[in-house]
Design brief:
Keywords: DNA-binding, TPR repeat, Transcription, Transcription regulation. The protein contains 43 helices and 14 strands. By secondary structure, it is α/β, with parallel strands linked by helices. Among the domains are: 121 residues, Orthogonal Bundle (Arc Repressor Mutant, subunit A); 78 residues, Tetratricopeptide repeat domain (Serine Threonine Protein Phosphatase 5, Tetratricopeptide repeat, Alpha Horseshoe); 130 residues, 3-Layer(aba) Sandwich (Rossmann fold), CATH 3.40.50.300; 59 residues, no CATH class; 90 residues, Winged helix-like DNA-binding domain superfamily/Winged helix DNA-binding domain (Arc Repressor Mutant, subunit A), CATH 1.10.10. The strands form 5 sheets. A 5-stranded parallel beta sheet has the order 6-7-8-5-9, with helices on both faces. The protein has a 3-stranded antiparallel beta sheet with strand order 12-14-13. It has a two-stranded antiparallel ribbon with strand order 1-2. Strand 13 and strand 14 form a beta hairpin. The longest helix is centred in the N-terminal third of the chain and has 27 residues.
Length: 884
Amino acid sequence: MRCLDAGVRFQVLGPLAASVPLPSAAQPRRLLAILLARPNEFVHRDALVDELWPDGAPSSAAAIVQVTVSKLRKVLGEQRLRNGPLGYRLTVEPGDLDTDRFLALADAGALEEALGCWRGPAFEDVAGGPLVEAHKVWLNDRRWSVFRRYTALELERGRHREVVDELAKVVADRPTDEQLVAQFVVALDRCGRRDAALRALDRARVALWEQAAVRPGDDLHRLYRRIAGREWTSGDPPAQLPATLPDFVGRAVQLAELERERGLVVLHGPPGIGKTALAVQAARRARKRFPDGQLYAEIGRLAPRDVLAGFLAALGVEPPEDLNELVGLWRGQTSDRRLLIVLDGVVSERQLRSLLPSGPGCLVLATSRRRLLGLPGQAVEVGELAEIEDLLGRERVLAEPVAGVELIRLCRGLPLAARVAGAKLAQRPHLRVSELAERMADETRVLDELIAGDLSVRSALSSAMRERSAEEREALRLLATCSPEVTEWSAAALLGLPVPAARDLLDALVDGHLVKTDGRDALGSVRYVLPDFVRLFWRAAPDPGATGRAFAAVLERLAVAYGALAASPAGSAHTVSLLGLAADGPEAAVKLLNAGSLHWEDGRSQRARRYFELAESRFRTLGDDRGTGASLVALADVHAELGDGQRALSELREALVLLKGDAQGQSVAAYQLGSLLEDLGDVRRAIESFELSMLLAEDRNDQAAKRYADVLRRHGRHDEAGTLLEKALGNATRAGEQHWEAHVLRSLGDLHTELGEPADGGRHLARSLRLFEQLGHRHAAAYTHRSLADACHLAGDQVAAEGHLRTAMTTFADLGDRRGAGYALLSLGRIRGDASAFTLAANLFRELGFPLWELRALAGLNSRSQGCERTREALTKISGAPGS
């Protein structure tokens, strides 16, 4: 049975104290405060370092923590202060901490006794880091909450004389606590000290304005009216700005620009992007430049008459009934004033024009979901937020780096989505980042997941949709359910409109931030794309009946439009991204296969699979064995990456039969089969397949040579691998095939890195990366970034290694490339010595069905004396692989 040193009690409700003498030095007392803020929990060593040195830790920080813990152990006892793999834990028995007694007494209603536990502010003599400071705030808030309950009960019992002096001391320290001020004023009034009560209210009004730039609330106004017998009026300017968001982050450049502005600034952007938060934050920063006050109104569908009447009343002017007189009076009252006006949710230019002040010294910050054209002043587009991880909770995201990157991607740069996800993580400590990311990855439920209290992405989108016309809403629904990426001509076919009308409708939706433009296609047509959350909004709650009735007609219109485009000289070379393009003939099947290849190169595996499946179906219908075989080879590559290795194996074997007589086609199928067999653990058969591929191509297939070289390198046959890669590089360079040259350079870089030559490896990899970036192949570049991370780590450049790895992991997460994510996790384990990364990699490769790669991940665990049982399981799978 565990035995603790008896009799050690701790006090934190005031100066830090204990029933045993504590070290007098600051460092042990600060460390003890951290552990007492999290009693009976392991506090990670890294968290201790961050807490003790919030402005940057010395290189000896870990050693200092160890020594400090040792000093505390001598006082508190070995059994009370324990260490483990997660850090250090201070065991505190029930009743040994004064906060436990305080909270228990407060819950039991013994409020006066509970308040007696306090000797001063919590941790009064300890300067803490973020964790301790947050705990101080929480404890002190609980103290004053109990004090308010206590004084309220005392006032109900008629004991105002007993609490008035104590309230006077508290209010002197907390002059902006309106509830305490109200209790103090009531006590003074009941004691017959009417003038003192009114003076207390006036002091509170001044403090609220000077410290928080707000005016007294309704409760204080009612008290003043009851005691003084008149309205509480003052010459203070109006201060109507709402509070800023406590978790506001980013937008530094825009804030700096807005602080200097005058005139009209319209902040426009999609729903949930943070327009109001930015406007209020900027207004708060700039308010001191506008001494005549700040006015705020949520416009929405309000009539200008109501808004102006409210503004004039705030300025102390009686508003007239006639609208023209109202506008004239507003302009007259604002001609010489310096006012800051925030108009939130403006719907139209007409609505805004009548609300503009006439004076040049005013600033109007208007927010709108639309681009308001034709207005004076400046328009500022509020785009995606880069600092999404801060809204999610940086510590939670960093604790699960792979899942964190995925969650950031799933928020799609939308602050509202991140704020909802962050609220869930903060309020539900048991919820893992990976679990939330998995839920949000389900497109059928993501909008249901993004609700927290009155925060809702769906509600924000619904409000935006209500502002659009019926025709625009129908267009969005059709785009979301049929084709979220269109050009003006395909949109015209989809919507059944003339091209000019379709263009105008799309441009109106672009102005409303419900459709985005994405460059131009090969024919020079503008590409229009639905933002993800708009697409998900309409797909989550479609009209199944309407969709079913319209779908056949839509397909027919698309086929006619495609046929017209394909018949033109320019269109024949242009691959159109539509729903499989229901057209006849082998040309359409070839176009589908080519379209799939383009999506596959860009890392869009699901879309690529859809095109390859359509191509395979079309070729089978046409009886084209060669086309069917080529489609199966392409599909096998996709299925292997998506973790369906057995399906890929079946497809490649069928392709080899169908491609009989086509040596080049069979060569491609054979090297694809070799790569897959190695992943499945059948190395002998893999090498045989590569040898067959090389024989079929008469050594002219550089892609087979490159992949064969990768397998040979991984199994220690470095000289053979080097010979194949040098030859493949020469051929690619002479042929001017930069894409393939970059692939071979990456393999050469990996070879040199594995041979302990990071300088040569880095040189090849840097060339590979430059070529991929020039070609715009982000997906392939991510694999090179991953290889560069290994080379930089071997060269001792840890910062560069982690930078390359971060880029690779972000791209793999964006594109849903689980195989690439597994490779990156292996690198993460090697670079950081992180066993959890190897565990994640092993789990991922197990899900993908790649036992050899699972074994490589488990090898990293085994080097840390972990994962032996899993290793035996992986070896069993490999021994049972086809042909083993």
